[in-house]
Amino acid sequence: NSKTTNICCIGAGYVGGPTMSVIAQKCPNIKVTVVDLNEERIAAWNDDDATKIPIYEPGLSAIVSEARGKNLFFSTDVEKAIDEAQIIFISVNTPTKNYGKGKGMAADLKYIELCARQIAKIAKDNKIVVEKSTLPVRTAEAIKSILENTGNGVQFEILSNPEFLAEGTAVSDLLNPDRILIGGETTKEGQLAIQTLVDIYANWVPIDKILTTNVWSSELSKLTANAFLAQRISSINALSELCEKTGANINEVAKAIGMDSRIGPKFLKSSVGFGGSCFQKDILNLVYIAKSYGLNEVADYWEQVIIMNDHQKKRFSNKIVQTLYNTVASKKITFLGWAFKKDTNDSRESAAIYVADDLINEQAQIAIYDPKVSRKKILSDLDYLESRTYKENSKNVASFDNPYDTCAGAHAIAILTEWDEFVTYDWARIYDSMQKPAFIFDGRNLLNKSELEKIGFVYHEIGT
Ligand code: NAD
Ligand code: UDX
């Protein structure tokens, strides 16, 4: 849209950072400012060395270095950015509430509300406010009420524009999205606001992939999409346990059902359990919303996806303990991978955290190598569970910057993330350095079973 010359995004995280970088690259005539309260994060986004940006995503640092300083800016001056922008994207975190009503289930909307109040305070001219964060259905109503009641007579239009990027593939997902979803009011002003946002995406997204709906459909579609994706993983993981009992092979079963074009091949990879900041939080939120309308069967149906996922993680740690002769006390267990999937430095809700917690309860010594996750992050992930003190966690966890030292002397190796580099290791060298029998528990069905067995490993994968 020739009219839009200035936009801002509140929240410079895994969504705000990559999304705005791609918009800036594709819309050179729009000034894009990404703001955050976190000074350290903004400083990292502004680091002269673009490989030091706070989020690791293949292809992202190149886009940031291309656009930064031209029409892409990272700043802590939230008020100035709000004041100058015609469109304000809200991309702050919406974690599961860990206190009060809805604790452990509902989305915590305190950061969203803060943004709305700040916009209301600062805005002196009409603005379009875009919900980019994942929000419970009908949140736009609350945002509207805050804006209208404190908004100095300024007109606000609220749009829902959920983000469907997956971490690790954020840049290609943003450049080539399956669809862009924009929900707005059915009023004339609402439709105009929708069109303004459509015009931005139309700079690089084919128009038939830009879907417009009412606000509530858009908000609910985001929760629904994540629930469906996670449900496929819990479905295949549920069957992996049955495969282990019956001699069926989950890799073969997944291939066989995935070739049915009605089912399709994607998201059928059995694993140690899904992680990431979205699936669990969004399903819990869906369950909470269903319950709040008295829809108990609907709530129970979706909650089962989480119950299955928790079971899959637990099953993996139990299997390690049982196989190691029912005790891992004082044994070195090596984790290859801590991130919740490959090609990201994000470890939020990673299955590795829960598996490590179980094994530390069994007094194992955990040695961890991840190509992108720091020891500091690993310890803070464990600390967040509040299972024991920080000091106790530090005693039980060692981290290394190369895989061979991490594996030396170990009783077992557990693969928690499917990083490509793990496949290329010198596995014979690793075998020679380990205690015997040398066990591998492959939580990602990543490695080549017959090759490893030839070397001498006792190899266990999921669902075979
Ligand atoms: P994040 O935690 O990486 O980033 C959020 C940022 O917002 C943080 O840096 C935080 O400091 C900042 N912030 C919070 N309150 C603020 C305020 N009042 N003013 C300025 N900055 C503030 O989170 P994320 O992963 O980018 O997720 C953001 C939203 O997008 C969530 O609702 C999430 O559900 C959704 N989402 C995430 C993904 C994903 O893959 N991570 C994908 C789609 C949607
Ligand atoms: C997800 C959604 O895919 C994305 O559309 C949404 O915007 C945010 O949430 P993300 O969590 O970044 O993205 O990664 P995703 O690729 O969905 O993987 C989530 C988890 O499921 C990871 O732990 C992954 O390892 C696991 N997974 C995925 C499987 O175990 N098996 C699969 O077949 C696919």
UniProtKB/TrEMBL annotation:
Residues annotated as binding substrate: 163-167, 222-226, 262, 269-275, 340-341, 444
An annotated Gene Ontology molecular function: NAD binding
Pathway terms, separated by semicolons: Nucleotide-sugar biosynthesis; UDP-alpha-D-glucuronate biosynthesis; UDP-alpha-D-glucuronate from UDP-alpha-D-glucose: step 1/1
GO biological process, one term: UDP-glucuronate biosynthetic process
Top EC category: oxidoreductase
Keyword Repeat: no
InterPro entries linked: 6-PGluconate_DH-like_C_sf (IPR008927), NAD(P)-bd_dom_sf (IPR036291), UDP-Glc/GDP-Man (IPR017476), UDP-Glc/GDP-Man_DH_C (IPR014027), UDP-Glc/GDP-Man_DH_C_sf (IPR036220), UDP-Glc/GDP-Man_DH_dimer (IPR014026), UDP-Glc/GDP-Man_DH_N (IPR001732), UDPglc_DH_euk (IPR028356)
Catalytic reaction equation(s): UDP-alpha-D-glucose + 2 NAD(+) + H2O = UDP-alpha-D-glucuronate + 2 NADH + 3 H(+)
Binding residues for NAD(+): 11-16, 36, 41, 92-96, 133-134, 167, 278-281, 348
Keywords from the named record: NAD, Oxidoreductase
EC number(s) per entry: 1.1.1.22
Catalytic residues, chain numbering: C278
Keyword Oxidoreductase among UniProt keywords: yes
The UDP-glucose/GDP-mannose dehydrogenase C-terminal domain, residue ranges: 334-449
Primary role: Catalyzes the conversion of UDP-glucose into UDP-glucuronate, one of the precursors of teichuronic acid.
Family: Belongs to the UDP-glucose/GDP-mannose dehydrogenase family.
UniProt-recorded name of the protein: UDP-glucose 6-dehydrogenase
Organism name: Flavobacterium franklandianum
